[in-house]
């Protein structure tokens, strides 16, 4: 957990770098274990390396809101989310829920990751936990599975593309 004092860093501008210097447990990226992570995902309250931060940014801010530890100014709610989270906490949850070791894109697009983010938000804000909606299988208008691109190109591609 962070030791954060609003009076020390000021009420309107927060620098997480000062807090991170005091954190002995944040020595590795949450996703690849690279040393000295300099980026964070506020959504999950974890720290990551530059390479993994790029992958998280590629997910979109709706899945992973990424901040630089040293270059960005942090809002109070973001610091609270980081205080409530932590790499060890997320890794333990990921192991218990079968998402640890998955590729970043799959791990953070999972229902389990969405549940973790919602619980972390609740813990950090004191608001009631609201479970994310459960994913539903995609179906077409008649209720069967949506055809894959390969099946589409095989069946209808010949008709439309003359192949």
Question: What characteristics describe this protein?
Answer:
single chain, 3-stranded antiparallel β-sheet, 9 helices, 6% strand, disordered N terminus, disordered C terminus
Written overview of the protein:
The protein has 163 residues and is mainly alpha-helical. The protein is built from 9 helices and 3 strands. The chain has helices spanning 6-9, 16-21, 50-59, 76-84, 87-96, 104-108, 111-125, 149-155, 157-161; strands at 39-41, 46-48, 66-68. The chain has a 3-stranded antiparallel beta sheet with strand order 2-1-3. Strand 1 (39-41) and strand 2 (46-48) form a beta hairpin. Helix 4 packs across helix 7 (111-125).
Please outline the helices and strands.
Layout: H1 6-9, H2 16-21, E1 39-41, E2 46-48, H3 50-59, E3 66-68, H4 76-84, H5 87-96, H6 104-108, H7 111-125, H8 149-155, H9 157-161
Antiparallel strand pairs: 1-2, 1-3
Helix pairs in contact: 4-7
Give a quick rundown of the structure.
With 163 residues, this protein is mostly helical. The radius of gyration is 20 Å and the shape is globular. It has helices at 6-9, 16-21, 50-59, 76-84, 87-96, 104-108, 111-125, 149-155, 157-161; strands at residues 39-41, 46-48, 66-68.
Computed Rg: 20 Å
Structural class: mainly alpha
Mean pLDDT: 79
Number of strands: 3
**How much of the polypeptide forms β-strand, as a percent range?**
5-15%
Helix content: 40-55%
Main sheet, how many strands, which sense, barrel? 3 strands, antiparallel
Instruction: Compute the separation of the termini in Å.
Output: 60 Å
Strand order of the largest sheet: 2-1-3
Assign an overall shape.
Answer: globular
Oligomer: single chain
Question: Count the helices. How many?
Answer: 9
List segments where confidence is low: pLDDT < 50 over at least 5 consecutive residues: 1-13, 143-161
